[in-house]
Amino acid sequence: MHPLTSIFVLIGLTFCHLLSAQDTVYTTSGVLYDIKIRDNQVDFVEYRPISEEFDKQNIFLSKQYVNTIKRHGGFIEDVVHDSANAFHSVFSYVDSNGNKFTEDINYNPASSFPIDTSIKLKRFKKDEYYTRKYGDYNHFYINDPARKFSTCKAVTFIGVNFSFMKLVNYHDKIKASIVRNKYLSTVAIKINTNPGLIAYRDAFLRGKHLLIETKASGASYKLLDPMSWIAANEYDLPVGKIPAIIRSLDCPGLEGVGVVFVIEKFSKPEKAVSGYWVAFDFSTRSVLLIDYINFKKVELQINNFMNGWVGYWEAGALNAGVLLPLSFQEYLRLESKGKFELTEQ
């Protein structure tokens, strides 16, 4: 190919790319066509005209003056003006077949579950081992007078459950459906098929054989609303909802004692993974032990979005201990020595 022809082809491809990446902002006074969104925050949008894509001048526009933002790829943000100075955004996604999926801003994956107000978290009397990793707070609950957990010979781990969680990260809200279906799905499947489970089968809990039934948990992310599972603000899953959540889990044919980790949230602002370790009786679905963890030391892995997002949260969850029930191990150690004692903070 002639060098001049190559240059024209390159320019043409660049131009086509810019056109395909164009965004549109519908303001309260007009329409901004042929622009590229550079940043999108809760209260403002930052953009450049396509014609100035390679210049360094960005334009900032308060969402007080925005009605709708349409991004390339079918992503839509509608700005709802509650009053003259108050507004909030609702996100939608239009797929390649023209189907529109809209965010429910009131969505709570655990909203239908009642709260058991009798559940009170306490802590081990000597809790230094725990506070070094997770911080200084009440985290442990036990209701096992028959000692079913401490005396059983085997436990069935039913995995890490993602169906009651939220991701707290405003920047991911506009692509919530894709993030759930491509990236969260990868994290859920990889964690629940982790070969390390088999490798430390007999070290998972002191003196107990580990049985593994994690297939349902690997698919649990599918129960999240695809457009509403990402939050701009912090989200909490109250410990009092855990008994009802355990009663709702689908695990037919299993017997004895089960253990599960229920993810509460991934929080990018806090660099945190949190959730509940739960031990329960399959026959009665009664909760035996609960341990709440809130790990705030999630670190950057790699930069590219697919591997970066998956690597960041997979490594964060594993480092948080979603496959390592530290308090349950400590409880068994203390119980065997007759030194188990809880206290209030």
Walk me through this protein's architecture.
- It is a single chain.
- The strands form three sheets. This protein has an eight-stranded antiparallel β-sheet, with no helix packed on it. Strands 10, 11, 12, 13, 14, 15, 16 and 17 form an eight-stranded mixed β-sheet that branches. Strands 9-18 form a two-stranded antiparallel ribbon.
- α4 (176-192) crosses α8.
- The radius of gyration is 24 Å and the shape is elongated.
- The model is unreliable at 6-20 (pLDDT under 50).
- By secondary structure, the chain is α+β, with helices and mostly antiparallel strands.
- It starts with a helix and ends with a strand.
- The chain has nine helices and 18 strands.
List keywords for this structure.
8-stranded mixed beta sheet, elongated, 9 helices, about 25% helix, 8-stranded antiparallel beta sheet, about 350 residues, alpha+beta
How many E strands?
18
Percent of residues in helices: 25-40%
Overall average residue pLDDT = 90
**Biggest β-sheet: count, sense, barrel?**
8 strands, antiparallel
The best one-word shape is elongated
Distance between the termini: 75 Å
Spatial extent as radius of gyration:
24 Å
User: Unreliable segments (pLDDT under 50, ≥5 consecutive)?
Assistant: 6-20
What fraction of residues sit in β-strands? 25-35%
Count of alpha/pi helices: 9
- Indicate the structural class: alpha+beta
Strand order of the largest sheet: 4-3-2-1-5-6-7-8
Instruction: Give the SSE order as H and E letters.
Output: HEEEEEEEEEHEHEEHHEHEHEEEHHE
